[in-house]
């Protein structure tokens, strides 16, 4: 079994080989399902010039927002960037390149990249700045734009459980981008809440097969809430 055991015991080993100017695909949705320890390790390494592909860029001082503090991100490919004041400042100052991508298109770019599909047509973005300069083709009388898929040098992913072979299970909102991100990295590193023995995850419950995963590390997660919303008590206006 040792030859198939993908568990590593340090974050240094988990991100060994990450270098300046690489592309990193990061799972997560808002602050939910983000690989907190792997992001912190990238900050600690000081790796610069990164292109980061993720639904969003965390918040000030947490998540991918940590990597903005020392200007480690050169380009951000994402669909939502509205929770980060430092992100806004770097964008307006010309220090950060941003490629805004519709959320569904971004998910499909990752999925297609992992499936070996170089590009696909979608109606989303046609007739808007998103579609400018892209090939257009009609299908059944409707125009579609050609979108290229995405792959990364590294994919960093957060899962609920994984076995030692890298088979992963995600929970709830963490399923939004992590499964697609996991398939799209040349090296995929999964940070998990629990590592379980072989056979502990029924095959029917596996979300990401271990064939996509190179390294698994046990993490500790703060699970910070991005924006707390609670119901009003009776009598409140």
TrEMBL record:
Its EC number is 2.8.3.5. Signal peptide: none annotated. GO terms for molecular function: succinyl-CoA:3-oxo-acid CoA-transferase activity. It holds the Pfam family CoA_trans. InterPro entries: 3-oxoacid_CoA-transf_A (IPR012792), CoA_trans_fam_I (IPR004165), NagB/RpiA_transferase-like (IPR037171). The keyword NAD does not apply. The keyword Transferase applies. Gene3D superfamilies: Glutaconate Coenzyme A-transferase. It comes from the Bacteria. Keywords: Transferase. NCBIfam families: pcaI_scoA_fam. This is 3-oxoacid CoA-transferase subunit A.
């Amino acid at each position: 079994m040792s030859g198939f055991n993908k568990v590593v015991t340090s974050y240094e080993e988990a991100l060994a080989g990450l270098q300046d100017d690489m592309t990193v695909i990061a799972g997560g949705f808002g602050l939910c399902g983000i690989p907190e320890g792997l992001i912190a390790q990238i900050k600690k390494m000081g790796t610069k010039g990164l292109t980061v592909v993720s639904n969003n860029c965390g918040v000030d001082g947490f998540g991918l927002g940590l990597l903005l503090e020392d200007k480690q991100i050169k380009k951000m490919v994402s669909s939502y960037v509205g929770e980060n004041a430092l992100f806004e400042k770097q964008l307006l100052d010309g220090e950060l390149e941003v490629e805004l991508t519709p959320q569904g298109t971004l998910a499909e770019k990752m999925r297609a990249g992992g499936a070996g599909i170089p590009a696909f047509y979608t109606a989303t973005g046609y007739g808007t700045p998103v579609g400018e300069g892209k090939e257009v083709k009609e299908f059944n009388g409707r125009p579609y734009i050609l979108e290229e898929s995405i792959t990364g040098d590294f994919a960093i992913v957060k899962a609920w459980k994984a076995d030692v072979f890298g088979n992963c299970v995600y929970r709830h909102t963490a399923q939004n981008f992590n499964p697609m991100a996991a398939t799209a990295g040349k090296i995929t590193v999964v940070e998990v809440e629990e590592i379980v023995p072989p056979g502990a995850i029924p095959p029917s419950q596996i979300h990401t097969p271990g064939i996509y995963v190179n390294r698994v590390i046990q993490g500790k997660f703060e699970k910070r809430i991005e924006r707390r919303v609670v119901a009003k008590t009776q009598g409140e206006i």
